[in-house]
């Protein structure tokens, strides 16, 4: 009895949240103006109408496992690895119908074996589900650390309307007590409804989507969970220093911030719109990460904004087609910049190589899905973890 009372008190006052945040995307991109011209579209449709300037191109030597390991190795220390006892891997572009990508990643990162490691799926909402589960786990076991990964390759197909909203990469979140970056507020608002806006039947390598419908549903869910969040918490828009969105393409987040600020004071609208511009900077240069997109946007805000200070409350809107959404919030901590481990992501993104539209199309077709045995030449892939091929349907991962 005493233990339960003590635990409940600890849980009430303990801060739990994102301690470190890492990101990886391959070193190749295609320019969106060039892609637009090749597809006989006005470049401003992609640059302004959709809000994307560059799109990550994923070579066959990278998949969700290697990208996740590359993101996580940027943040994990030897001590973190010792304290980790749970790895939650969120993806909607997994590489096996049975075995969890988390198991491969745990091996590549050299994690100990007395851990739990599994995969979760609910479209682009998966990483948020993982984060909330991780928070609950740390509440029960305050000395534990949890690695939450969101990794995906967004594929709609060449020459489809969804093509300019592709991309790919991975985010790695280390969740712990007394976090360096963001302490999560306990109360959040969520909604689930069976809706066919975006899905990928078994065996298909590209998503099926009702594009306009999915964008409208996203905004409807935003309205619903935002109203619910305000009722549950008593907090208002003016209590938030910035609002972050899942960004399948950055124009949709712009519509989101416009929707939330309709009727707000001009100074508040200006402040939140400015922060939104910081929050979409990296997403404009990478494209859709599916479940990692919201957290890439958080990273972008943390590195681009000069206004944020410790104690600021951030609002986060997570959306996964199918459909599920959550609006939650967290308080920035004094060492929030330190949680990015000194990596300059602007520089990393600026240092990528541009590939032609022809080369992008070639690499798009090269991604391994159904191969039984194939060797890949990884000598041009500078990433630390790569996919070297497949042998009898077993993916061959290595560190080089
Ligand atoms: N200059 C400036 N703007 C221009 C322009 C020009 N020359 N030409 C067109 N535009 C604007 C249009 O007016 C339009 O703006 P609004 O949305 O404000 O009306 C915008 O550019 C896009 O033009 P279209 O609507 O004609 O574009 P489209 O029909 O080719 O498709 C899309 C756009 C629906 C986003 C499509 O790319 C798509 O289906 N993408 C995938 C679906 C998606 O991302 N859905 C998001 C919600 S689902 C989700 O969030 C989960 C997930 O990650 C997938």
UniProtKB/TrEMBL annotation:
CDD domains the record matches: init_cond_enzymes
Keywords: Transferase
Signal peptide: none
GO molecular function, one term: hydroxymethylglutaryl-CoA synthase activity
Residue span(s) of domain Hydroxymethylglutaryl-coenzyme A synthase C-terminal: 188-260, 278-367
Keyword Transferase belongs to the record: yes
Keyword Isomerase: no
GO biological process terms, semicolon-separated: acetyl-CoA metabolic process
Positions of (3S)-3-hydroxy-3-methylglutaryl-CoA binding: 42, 156, 255, 288
Active site per database record: 92 (proton donor/acceptor), 124 (acyl-thioester intermediate), 246 (proton donor/acceptor)
Gene3D superfamilies given in the database record: 3.40.47.10
Domain called Hydroxymethylglutaryl-coenzyme A synthase N-terminal: residue spans: 15-178
Family membership: Belongs to the thiolase-like superfamily. HMG-CoA synthase family.
NCBIfam families: HMG-CoA-S_prok
Protein name: Hydroxymethylglutaryl-CoA synthase
Organism: Liquorilactobacillus capillatus DSM 19910
């Amino acid at each position: 009895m005493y233990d339960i009372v003590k635990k409940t008190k600890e849980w009430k006052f303990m801060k739990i949240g994102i301690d470190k945040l890492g990101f990886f995307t391959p070193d190749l991109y295609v320019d969106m103006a060039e892609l637009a011209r090749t597809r006989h579209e006005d470049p401003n449709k992609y640059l302004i109408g959709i809000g994307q300037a560059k799109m990550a191109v994923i070579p066959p030597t990278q998949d969700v496992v290697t990208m996740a390991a590359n993101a996580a190795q940027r943040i994990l220390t030897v001590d973190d690895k010792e304290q980790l006892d749970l790895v939650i891997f969120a993806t909607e572009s997994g590489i096996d119908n049975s075995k969890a990508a988390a198991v491969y990643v745990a091996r590549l990162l050299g994690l100990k074996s007395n851990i739990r490691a599994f995969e979760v799926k609910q479209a682009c909402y998966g990483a948020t589900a993982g984060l909330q589960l991780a928070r609950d786990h740390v509440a029960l076991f305050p000395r534990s650390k949890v690695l939450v990964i969101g990794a995906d390759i967004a594929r709609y197909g060449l020459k489809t309307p969804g093509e300019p909203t592709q991309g790919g990469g991975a985010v790695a979140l280390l969740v712990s007590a007394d976090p360096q970056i963001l302490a999560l507020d306990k109360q959040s608002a969520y909604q689930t409804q069976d809706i066919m806006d975006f899905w990928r039947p078994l065996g298909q390598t590209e998503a099926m989507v009702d594009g306009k419908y999915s964008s409208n549903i996203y905004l409807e869910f935003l309205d619903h969970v935002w109203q619910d969040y305000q009722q549950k918490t008593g907090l208002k828009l003016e209590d938030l220093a910035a609002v972050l969105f899942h960004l399948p393409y950055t124009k949709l987040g712009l519509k989101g911030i416009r929707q939330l600020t309709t009727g707000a004071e001009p100074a508040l609208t200006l402040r939140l719109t400015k922060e939104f511009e910081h929050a979409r900077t990296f997403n404009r240069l990478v494209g859709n990460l599916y479940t990692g997109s919201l957290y890439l946007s958080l990273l972008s805000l943390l590195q681009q904004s000069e206004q944020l200070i410790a104690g600021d409350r951030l609002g986060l809107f997570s959306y996964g087609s199918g459909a599920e959404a959550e609006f939650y919030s967290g308080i920035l901590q004094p060492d929030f910049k330190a949680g990015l481990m000194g990596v300059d992501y602007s520089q990393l993104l600026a240092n990528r190589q541009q590939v032609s539209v022809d080369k992008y199309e070639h690499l798009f077709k090269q991604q391994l899905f159904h191969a039984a045995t194939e060797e890949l030449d990884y000598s041009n892939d500078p990433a630390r973890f790569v996919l070297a091929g497949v042998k009898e349907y077993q993916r061959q991962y290595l560190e080089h």
